[in-house]
Every structure is written in structure tokens, then in C-alpha cells.
Amino acid sequence: MKRFGKIYTALILMFLYVPIFVLIVFSFNETKSRTVYTGFTLRWYTKLFHNSVIMDSLVNTIIIAVCASILSTVLGTFAAIGIHRMRKVPKALVMNATNIPIINPEIVTGVSLMLLFVFFAARMKFEFGFMTLLIAHITFDVPYVILNIMPKFRQMDPHLYEAAVDLGCSPMSAFRKVVLPEIMPGVVSGFLMAFTYSLDDFVVSYFTSGSTSQTLPITIYSMTRRKVSPEINALSALIFVVVLVMLMIKNTVDKRSAKAKGGERL
Amino acid sequence: MKTRIMAAPYLVWMSVFIVVPLLMVAYFAVTTDKGTFTVSYLADVGQYTNIFVRSIWLSVIATAICLVLAYPLAFMLSRMKKHHQGTMLMIIMLPMWMNFLLRTYAWMTLLGNNGIINYLLGLVGLGPYKLINTSGAVVLGMVYNYLPFMILPLYSVMEKIDRSVIEAASDLGSDPRSVLLRVIIPLSLPGVYSGITMVFVPCISTFIISRMLGGGSNLLIGDLIEMQFLGNSYNPHLGAAISLVLMAIVLVIMTVMNQFSPDDQVLI
Fold first, then answer.
1. Using the beta-carbon criterion (under 8 Å), do A108 and B98 form an inter-chain contact?
2. Could you name the CATH architecture of A50-229?
3. Which chain B residue has the Cα nearest residue A175?
4. Alpha-carbon distance B247 to A105, whole Å?
5. Is B157 inside any structural domain?
6. Which of A53, A134, A166, B25 has the most CB atoms in a 10 Å sphere around its CB?
């Protein structure tokens, strides 16, 4: 039974990883062949770094992800503070609307925003590009920020704030010194989530980007539509390494903070 | 309290960019270019019944395969030593952090007519088989991309099943089969339901997987919508009508799954 479990786990992991490893191995292949490995080269990596379309869209993706995640964190944090204080019925209404972009199929979010932008683009004379992308990203990012912060309010002792005010804090400094530290973990995880969703998003960006402002996933998509180039393999290998390093850092940080707290590790 | 005011900017944002766009989808679905009311676009959706049936069918198969593959894995994961669980979970989730276009592209190169699978089969004198541009390839792509979405919710409920509950059942005379059927499965059902939603919804609305792995002959609902907005047959009214139907399907699935779930956990 134990052995069966190990073999089974190994098979699933193989299923998950073999395609990625094949992709990476062929990024070092001398020829464009996707079946026969003919020899080692770093040519595709140099080509990748000299490909201005990819590099521009990478920069663009990072700019959008940074802007969208910062703006949506600010918007979402204020929103969560306000929503937390709302009465039951309006609160439920707002939370339901907030859940829409999370529950709805991405393609519907994409086309609905596209309809809106098309409608206003004709009337207000703007074009699809950086601004439409940024608005779209903030729109699907904010709900994650709010959903990360709301539980922190629920866990917080409401008397803490009152105690601070009773002991002479102004409401503003009571908020800064008492409430903010309590919800900070939620703000940070909301920000990180928004950032990764923005980096990774394809579907919503696809419908809201226009031709002037492309993100990396859109560039990857158009590359896979054209003839094969091992540059995509090289790109995949680099992304894989970046992700691996990030997750390992996160893992060590988590373990350390768990140890520091003396609690059980995740 | 004045603090409620702080939600105001978000309320405006939410209304303009979440609620209004959805109302526009509904409006476009039931009006013509001139703005007169019509149900003809919604009626036209009926012409694409075969595509809807295919989408639902392929998504059901993919979701079922994910459930069958993920269930034992999630259980074994939940019974591992605590500190192994975290590492293992990270290993399972790692591919999910790669963009799904790259993950799907990986299978494109593996399954291609000159791909590595056909090459290896050729070495032992088999094939070549037509692997890519089939509905099987689309299902494979769905399973590959969304399997972790099934493992995660299953694992998180199974992890909470106390070892002593299982031991108690066997001490009181249950054989392994009835421990599974009467203890483990009932306790893990909430995870099953949220796993089904988390896999089924992206499967039924995808248009990338079908385009990259299904060729032109395996259109799904997502492809149909995309074609109305960005493809050759630009028709936002029909596209909106199809989107509306897709939303209705998703809503039905989620309501059914929520009905079964005992606690009001947030899906996804």
C-alpha cells in the first residue's frame, strides 16, 4: 500500500513535470528540431534577449503588474475598511458584487470590459492600450485584495480600537497604531496575489489590450500561433527558474517565521 | 462612523467596471445595432447547440479525470508527515506558476505529428498517430492545466480529517473499504464540490486550450465568444448572448455544488 502510494505520487509528478523539462531541454538544442537533441547551444537565449518585442512586452507586463497591484491594494484596503463598517444588507450586496470577477469565467470579464471600453472609446476619443489594460487589471485585482483583508477584520478584537481611543489616541492614530498592524498581513498577501495575477493574466488582457500595449502572455500567444521558435523554450526555462527561486525563498521565509513563532510549520 | 466613506472610491470603481459592463453584456444580448429590443440573438445561440454540448461534455470528462487522479494523491498527501506536506504541496503547485500558455505549448510540442511522442513511438515501430488536434488532446490539456485546482481543495479538507477518526472506525470493526466509503469520502465531500467547480468553470470557458491543442475542429464555447469579439465574424450582440448563456451554465453548476456543500465556504 505504501509502495503503491509512492509510485502513484511519482507518476502524477512525472505527468506534471515531464512536459516542462522537455521544453527546457530543447531550449538548449542546436537545431530547431523538437524531437532530436543534436547538441548544446545558448543561441536561443541570446536571441531571446535581443528580441525587442519580447523584451518590450516583458517590461510592459512588469509596469502594469506593479501599477495595478499598488493601486488595487490602496483601493482595496480603503474599501475593506469601509465595507467592514457597513450594515449587514449593503455589506452583503457589496461583497456579492466583489465576488463577481472571481466567480465569473475570465472570458466574460474580458468581453464585458471590452464592450465598456468600445462604447466609451468612440465617445471619449481614446484608444485601447496601457490605460484600458491597467483599468482591467485593477478591476480583477481589487477583489483579491479585499478578500485577503476582510478576514483580518473579523479576527481582530473590536475593543482594541476602542481601548486605544479611550486611552487618548485620536481616531487617526488609533487606526494607524492599532488597526493597520492587525490587517497588514492581509494587505501584504492581497498585494502579492494581485501582483502575480496581473503578471500571469492572459484572457482579460487579450480582450482589453489593443495593438499598442502588449503584455508578455499576449506576445507568447502570438508566438505560438506562428512558426515554432526555440526562443519560447528558452523563455519557459527562465520563467521556471525564476518561479522556483521565488517559491524556495518564500518557503524558507515561511519556515523561519513559523519557527520564530514557535508554532507548527505549514 | 465616517469610516464607511472610505469604501466610496471602490464602490464607484465597482459600479463602473464590474456592474455596468455586465449590464452592457445583458443589454447587447437583447438589442440590435439600432437599440431595439430583440431575442433573435439569444435564439441564434441555439444554432450552436453542438458546440455547447461538446464544451460541457469535454469539461465533464476532464473534471472527472481530475477528480479520479487527484483524490488518492490528496489523501496520501494529507497523511504525510507535516513538514513533508508543505514541500510536496509546493512541488505540486510549482507548474501552476508558469503561465498556462507555456504549459499548453509544452503539450503542443509533445503531441505534434513530428513531436517527441510520435518520434519515440516510431523508434519501437508504432505510429505515427494523430495525437494533436483531437478532442482527446483538448481533454489532456484541461487535465494538465487544472489538476492542481482539484488537488488543493481536496487536500485542504482531508488534512483536517483527524487520524483518530479513521482509527476509531477501524477499531470499531470497519474494514478499509467501509472506512473509505463511510468516513473518508463523506468528510471530504466539501472539497470534492469546490474542486469540481474550480476545474469545471475554467474548462468550460477556455478558448486557448482548444485552439492550441484542438485545431480548428474542436471549437468550444470560449472560441465561439472570442470569434464574435476579435475574430472574423465580428458580432458583439451574438457574442454577448453566448456569454450570457455561459454565465447561466456556470451559475447553475455553482448553485448545485453550493447546495451540497454544508458550510458557506467561498468557492475558488
1. no
2. Orthogonal Bundle (1.10)
3. B3
4. 7
5. yes
6. B25
Q: Name the minimum distance, in Å, from the CA of B17 to any CA of chain A.
A: 7
Tell whether pTM > 0.80.
Answer: yes
Q: Which chain A residues have a beta carbon less than 8 Å from that of B76?
A: 5, 8-9
Enumerate residues 6+ apart whose C-beta is below 8 A from B101.
A202, A217, A220, A221, A224, B208, B212
Tell me, letter by letter, the H, E, C secondary structure of A199-245. HHCCHHHHHHCCCCCCCHHHHHHHHHHCCCCCHHHHHHHHHHHHHHH
Q: Which domain holds residue B250?
A: 49-260
Cβ B200 vs Cβ B120: under 8 Å: no
CA atoms of B104 and A171, how far apart (whole Å): 52
Domain assignment present for residue B146? The answer is yes
What the block records as the C-alpha cell of A257 is 517565521
Residue among A98, A147, A220 whose CB faces B102 most closely: A220
The CA-to-CA distance between both ends of chain A, in Å, stands at 26
Q: How many residues does chain A have?
A: 266
Using one digit for the tens of pLDDT, what is the confidence trace for B178-187? 888 888 999 9
Residue A171 contacts by C-beta under 8 Å, 6 or more apart in sequence? A165
Q: Which of A81-90, A109-118, A156-165 has the highest mean pLDDT?
A: A109-118
The closest CB to that of B86, out of A26, A94, A266, belongs to: A266
A183/chain B closest Cα distance in angstroms: 15
* B244: nearest CA partner in chain A: A108
Residues of A in contact with B90 (CB under 8 A): 247, 251
Tens of pLDDT, residues B188-244:
999 999 999 999 999 999 999 999 999 878 899 999 999 999 987 889 999 999 999
B166: domain CATH number is 1.10.3720.10
**Which residues in chain B are contacts of A253 at CB distance < 8 A?**
none
- State the ipTM, two decimals: 0.90
